[in-house]
Amino acid sequence: MSEVLLEVNNLKKYFPITRGFIKSKVGDVKAVDDVSLFIKEGETLGIVGESGCGKSTLGRTLLRLYDATAGEVRFRGKDVLNAPKDQIKELRKEMQIVFQDPYSSLNPRMTVSQIVGEALVEHGLYRKGKELDDYVVEIMNKCGLARYHMNRYPHEFSGGQRQRIGVARALALSPSFIVADEPVSALDVSIQSQVINLFTDLQRELNISYMFISHDLGVVRYISHRVGVMYLGSMVELADKNALFDNSKHPYTQALLSAIPHPDPTMKRDRIILEGDIPSPANPPSGCKFHTRCMYVEDICREEVPEFRDLGGEHFVACHLAK
């Protein structure tokens, strides 16, 4: 079995709500609320859920782009959240991110060679010159870009090509772990498949681990080994992708899966329509956060927070009624 690369225990990220001229704190937006998970070497963990459930905040907090409110993150056994600046700089080589928007995530004043090579110079791995240029070209070729693209600017590329530049930038430092924050959501369907195949090819070649954040359950099933489902800042189900798609245990997961389009238009499916709106993360419901929209709700769901427990075979569920 592969070793655990990244371990997250009871991670929380709250954003303060302030009012008045002196900005006094009146509450918190609980964007990530007590999330625990692990990612093995060479594995892809897919993260899914509705907009605003905390997927992107989770990924950025793991990398310390946001400061965590509480919890623990360990990368190869090293404490990430409390590491000093010099250790964090070393961890940056191992932990990278590909952002969602290929248009706003690239500096329009920098060429492709400058974008891809910037981190290499910053970390002292290369000096500007032919050796750096040759390495940048090597990384670009792995990501489907050619040498003649080096001196071009981001506005000269299509959306798919820009995302390839973003992948090349993340790949330049030879990381072991990449957070892919909805990397194909802004692309055409035909280009999506090319970028997804690029991710899988790089993983097969370099043994990279991914946290792949997406709304598209079809994409997540294709690329992931395990899948985690988030609702209102909390993880409600985490399992092997086949176990989750074929035998989901949480009512929220079942509702999400029922909404996946099927290529056969004559096939009848039992669509689960969730009633009501998503509660505010600033004032989540008591007990199980999903009880206000759950069709199976019982009294215990309104009163007690369900334990995120293993039902067997590393199939974790936060539901009082799951068996």
TrEMBL record:
Name of the gene: appF
Family listed: Belongs to the ABC transporter superfamily.
Keyword Cytoplasm part of the UniProt annotation: no
Coiled coil regions, renumbered to chain: none
ABC transporter domain boundaries: 6-257
Protein name: Oligopeptide ABC transporter (ATP-binding protein)
GO BP field: peptide transport; transmembrane transport
Pfam families assigned: ABC_tran, oligo_HPY
